[in-house]
Amino acid sequence: MRLINTPLIALAYVEFLDILFYPAFKRASLASRFKFANEDEWPIELLSRAKDMEDKKLSDYLGKFLGGDDKAWAQLVDHVLGKLEQALK
Predict the structure, then answer these.
(1) d(C-alpha 75, C-alpha 28), whole Å
(2) Separation of alpha carbons 39 and 23, rounded Å
(3) Which of 7, 17, 46, 89 is deepest in the core (most CB within 10 A)?
(4) What distance in Å separates the CA atoms of residue 20 and residue 65, rounded to the nearest whole number?
């Protein structure tokens, strides 16, 4: 899915971030726009969205994070926020 409309790009990254933070929202008993029936759905949804967004760095950072690389979390969040900033300029 090639996103060329700036608001759609921003929305895609906002939704990705929302999904990324889902476990933290759940632990804190905060509402999220996304619900997952089981723990396996969360990483599958993240991987699917990263692939659909055709963002190689996003996919790389996500793969590292899901593989247990703690440093990749900061890289992942920083990358998503940077893409949001670019889209909203």
Answers:
(1) 23
(2) 9
(3) 46
(4) 11
Both tokens assigned to 27: 């632990």
List the one residue out of 89, 70, 83 whose CA is nearest residue 16: 83
Cβ 81 vs Cβ 61: under 8 Å: no
| pLDDT band at 7; cut points 50, 70, 90 | confident
| Structure tokens that stand for 78 in this block | 């920083």
Q: How confident is the model over 80-88, as a mean pLDDT?
A: 91
Going by the DSSP 8-state scheme, the letter that residue 33 receives in this structure is S
Q: What is the pLDDT of residues 9-26, one digit of tens each?
A: 899 999 999 999 999 999
Rg for the chain, CA atoms, rounded: 13
Report the alpha-carbon distance of residue 71 to residue 14 in Å, rounded: 21
| pLDDT mean over 61-81 | 96
